[in-house]
Amino acid sequence: MAGEILDNKGRGEAGWDWPAIHPEGRKFGLIAVAVSLFFLLALDWELIGWPLLLLSFGVFAFFRDPERVVPQGEAAIIAPADGIVTLIEEVEPPLELQIDDGSGFPGLPNGTVTRVSIFMSVFDVHINRTPVGGTVRRVVYIPGKFMNAELDKASEENERQHILIERSDGLKIGFTQIAGLVARRIVPFVKPGDMVAKGQRVGLIRFGSRVDIYLPAGTDPKVMIGQTTIAGETVIAEIGQRGLIEGISQ
Predict the structure, then answer these.
(1) Which amino acids are annotated catalytic?
(2) Which family does the entry's similarity section mention (predicted)?
(3) DSSP code at position 48
(4) Measuring CA to CA, how many Å separate 60 from each of 19, 23, 64, 142, 179?
(5) What local confidence, expressed as pLDDT, does residue 146 receive?
(6) Is 210 exposed, middle or buried (0-12, 13-18, 19+ CB in 10 A)?
(7) Which of 64, 130, 166, 243 has its CA 20 to 30 A from that of 22?
């Protein structure tokens, strides 16, 4: 199915399949299996071995990497993460995405924009994807704390990594991977200068975290607080479109 074109007129074929396990997680799963088998076979400690074996399947599930069908409309900005929308606020983008970094490529313009925060629990897919296609202009890693990623101040105090993408028309979209209470490493898949397609995998955060995306001026989100997003599939906004969207929890 990878690379196949599907549409809303019935073109293409789809079916359920076991998701792949990202290479970044295979070593952790294999270590967990090896430890559990040691307790089961070498020590015959079933009370410890069986829970560890169950945990090893959980580790593999955490690093699952399913295929996604990425909407290709020019105006569509796609969700960079699986999870729940926990914050939608008007903020100034991080300085790291605005200031002159000496690369010769300007950052985001000054002024407030809408920030959409997506919280990922340990049960969500943790592969992050780019919301637009273009050229990676910045990848800025900042060490920090590991407080609850659902808190607003986590955007400024937690370990985080900013990524700035510039489209071919010059529009720039920035987003931030933020570590949480359990997360202890942000793993990038891209570097400045790389060309990326919309919905391409750009990194992961191990074991629970959050992703913030900064929408361009004049653009309102098409998602609501409490809504679940799917990385690479959910249209989080359409460039230049504004308007209130209301939902009812039920």
Answers:
(1) 209
(2) Belongs to the phosphatidylserine decarboxylase family. PSD-A subfamily.
(3) H
(4) 10, 10, 6, 28, 20
(5) 58
(6) buried
(7) 166
